[in-house]
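Progress report, Aim 2. The chain analyzed during this reporting quarter is listed below.
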Amino acid sequence: MACLTKEQIDFIRSDLKSRNVSRSFLFEEWFDHVCCDVETLLNRGMTFEDAYRKVAGESSDVEIRTAHRDVEQFLDHRYVGIKKLLLFAFLVFAASWAINLKGAGNWIGLASFFVLAVVYLRISLDFLGKRFAHRINMLLSVLSFLSFLGTLSGILLLFLYRNYGINTGGHGVDLTVFGWFFFSLVCLFYYLREYRTAIERKELKKTAWFATLSAFNVFLAAVSIASFPLYRYVEGYLFYLIGFILGYNTLAILVLLFTRLMKNTLVLSLVIGSFMIVFIHSPFRSKLPGGKPKLHELTLQLIPERDPGQDRLYITMFYDRFPDRPITLPLKKTGENTYSINMPSYAYKGYLYYAIEKDSVNAVEYLARPVDLDSLELKVPRQKVYELEYHPE
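Predicted C-alpha cells for the chain:
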C-alpha cells in the first residue's frame, strides 16, 4: 500500500496554503481530503505528480473560496441574535442618558445593562456548547459567565445605592469593572487562538488588531482595578484615566464601523460593554439630562423654636468622611421654623457636621472656627424630617 512521504506531504501543504483559505480548520479538512485522494491514486499505479495534479485540479480556487465564504457566513449568522441584542442594549443605554422623566432614565439605564448581561450569558452558553471543539472553550465560557455575574450584580448595587440610598460599600463599581476585565480576557484568549490558526494575510492582520485591542482593554481594566485600594492617592488622576478609556473606546467603535468590522460579535461586545461600564462611573454622566441624580426634598426643623425672621438661611456642612470638602447651600423657608433643601439620595449619607447662619459668609466662617460643631445622621431618602440646632448670635 503506497503512502505519502514527508516531502510529498510538505509539498502538498505548501501548495495548498497558497489558496484562499483563511481559517485553519477549513484548511486542515481540505488538506486531509487531498492527501487521502492522492494516496488512493498512488495505489492505483499513478505517479505522485500525476495524482496530485488530478486531485488538485478537481477543486478550483473558486470552489474553495465559495466553501470558505459559506463557512464564514454560517459562523456570522449564528451571532446575528447576539449582535441585535448588543446594539439594542447600546441604544437603550444612550436613551437612558437623554431622558430624565421622574427618574425614568435610571430604570432605562438599568434595563440596558440587563440586556448587556444577557449578551455575556449567551456568549458563555455558546462557548459551553462548543467545549469539546477546543479545550480553551470551557475557560472562555467560565470567564464570560463571570462577566455576566459581575455586570448584573454590579449594576443592581449601583442602582440601589444611587436611587434608594442603600449602602453597598462601593462594591457596585468593583463588580462592573471586574466584569469588564473578565470579558477582556475572553476576547484576548479567543483572538490569540484565531491569530495562531489564521493563514490568509488579511485574516492575520485583522485578528492581530483584535487581539491587540483586547490586550489593551485587559491592561486598562487591570489599571482600574488596581486603583480601588489606592483611591485616596489616585483620585485626582481618575478623571484622566476615565477620559482616555472613553476616548479610546469611541475611536474603536468608529474604526469598527468604517472598516465594516461590526459583524465581529466578540470585539463589538467588548468595546460597547467597556464604554457603557466606564461611562456610568465617569463625571461626564452628570452633564446629560439622564445623569442628574434623583433629588429628595428634606424638611429641616430648627430648634430651639425661634423664628429667624427671614425666608432664607444658609447651611455650611461637610460629610464626616470628607472633612476637607465643605459646601454651603441655601435653605428655603416652607413653614414656621421649618426650611427645605433638595438632596440626592446618595449624597452626604452618614454623619453630617453643619453650621447655620443668616448669610453664607458667616456660615463658612463659623465652620472654620475651632469649636464643637453640631452633627446629625442623614438617612436619605428614608427619613425626610431632621432637627437642626440653630444658635443665632
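The chain has a mean pLDDT of 78. The beta strands are 295-303, 312-319, 327-335, 338-344, 350-357, 374-378, 385-389. These observations will guide the mutagenesis work planned for the next reporting period.
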